[in-house]
Amino acid sequence: MGPTARTTAETTTEQPARWSSRQTSWDRQQEAYLPDREQRFAALLDVVEATRGEQPRVLDLACGTASITGRLLARLPGATSVAVDLDPALLRIAAGTHAGDERVRIVRADLGTPDWVRAVTDAAPEVAHGGFDAVLTATALHWLTPERQRALYAEVAGLLAPGGVFCNADHMPDPGLPALTGRLGQWRDARRESLYAEGTALSWSQWWDAARSAPELADAVAERDAIFAASHGSSESMPPYTTHLDYLRAAGFAEVGLVWRGLTDAAFAAVR
After folding, report:
1. Is 23 part of any domain?
2. In which residue ranges is the amino acid composition biased (Low complexity) (predicted)?
């Protein structure tokens, strides 16, 4: 993957309605993939508000279009967010959606290497000294290898303030339900394909095909295609939730456990 770098919003300060529309279209596509998407977001924000109050300093990790950031600021207007991702197309939508909002900083960095930590601390040095109140991520880190996931959890711990929380909602099957997990996965896939066939929602590939033809995104999507050509989609790491909790304990978190479950997915919270 490409080198760590900070993104800019050069072309995103115009036509806010267009960026809002792009954000909405991304959300709709994701909701077809994850019907309980809003529930998992709400669980993460419940943890943040309950533990860190109304003005948390949040790191939105593997942020995509910064969907979590948008919901964070709607719920807690006094919050701030540093939103991090590698994808130039999704970051462009994030930058356009939040253009002019001083509460949000967009950072382009590759979570596949530890260099992302420097990119974040350079972008938000005042937070780096005191630590983030919360690090949030959803349905993204399964693209990392198990070894990289484990290392990332330790890196996250180093960015949190004492008492800060790390929450990740992702594919985390229950090891006690192997046969049921398989059946639930088949049911979920069939439901999604039905939505696509009905035209109720765009599939992943349809959404990206539309983005490639959008003047405001075409160059960023071309760059994205080059970045992820040899990696994205090649493999996914979806260990049971118990493995994630083991990684967190090894990283030095004081408390770890699940705060939400949705069939084959779950969200953990880890307290620094």
Report:
1. yes
2. 1-14
Question: For residue 79, is it within any domain?
Answer: yes
Query: Which has the closest alpha carbon to 36: 230, 171, 203?
Result: 171
Q: Does residue 10 form part of some domain?
A: no
* pLDDT tops 50 at residue 11: no
**Contact of 26 with 207, CB cutoff 8 Å:** yes
Q: Measuring CA to CA, which residue among 202, 218, 224 is closest to residue 25? A: 202
Segments in the chain forming alpha helices (H): 16-33, 37-52, 67-75, 88-97, 116-123, 125-130, 146-157, 178-198, 204-212, 218-228, 241-250
Helix-helix angle 88-97:16-33, to 10 degrees: 120
Residue 49 CA to residue 28 CA, distance in Å, equals: 26
Residue 250 has φ and ψ, to the nearest 5°, of -65, -30
